[in-house]
Amino acid sequence: MWVFGYGSLLWNPGFEYQEKAIASLPGWHRSFCMRSIHHRGTVDKPGLVLALDAMAGAHCQGLALSVAPEHRDTTLDYLRERELVSSAYLEKMLHIDLADGRKVEAVTYVIDPDHVQYCHLELEEQAQIIATAVGGRGPNTDYLHNTASHLWELGIEDAELDWLSARVRELTAV
């Protein structure tokens, strides 16, 4: 079983894997399009977390993690508890392209565009929210900066995340 990570799964998978590979998911893009009311914000002051949003012609680069057959069920249980906490994500099996040319199916969590937590915000508004939101897993800024830095370490370019990370650092500098 493969799992596709594009946000916190890059730096905090939380499960045992046997192989990791840079991968690309066609037809989707990484976006701060989900209001976070649990992990990086609250109901009263939502933060933002990344989700995969469908977009024709787009592709999202991330990390594919291979799970051994004996860990499949416990990994799925863990991921469902972690990712499906508010039902804003949908679990899908999607085709991804590994950097070495292999094509595999991967468990992937994408945004439900009909869910109340789904949003489309301009980058500046995203930065303003991320700069101040805090949830059960800590500051929204940590989530943004960890994701941006791990993408950079993996050699994955994401201009929007780089801009957001720099802008949020400006907003939080005192």
TrEMBL record:
<dbReference type="Pfam" id="PF04752">
    <property type="entry name" value="ChaC"/>
</dbReference>
<dbReference type="InterPro" id="IPR006840">
    <property type="entry name" value="ChaC"/>
</dbReference>
<keyword id="KW-0456">Lyase</keyword>
<dbReference type="GO" id="GO:0006751">
    <property type="term" value="P:glutathione catabolic process"/>
</dbReference>
<dbReference type="InterPro" id="IPR036568">
    <property type="entry name" value="GGCT-like_sf"/>
</dbReference>
<dbReference type="InterPro" id="IPR013024">
    <property type="entry name" value="GGCT-like"/>
</dbReference>
<dbReference type="GO" id="GO:0005737">
    <property type="term" value="C:cytoplasm"/>
</dbReference>
<dbReference type="GO" id="GO:0061928">
    <property type="term" value="F:glutathione specific gamma-glutamylcyclotransferase activity"/>
</dbReference>
<protein>
    <recommendedName>
        <fullName>glutathione-specific gamma-glutamylcyclotransferase</fullName>
        <ecNumber>4.3.2.7</ecNumber>
    </recommendedName>
</protein>
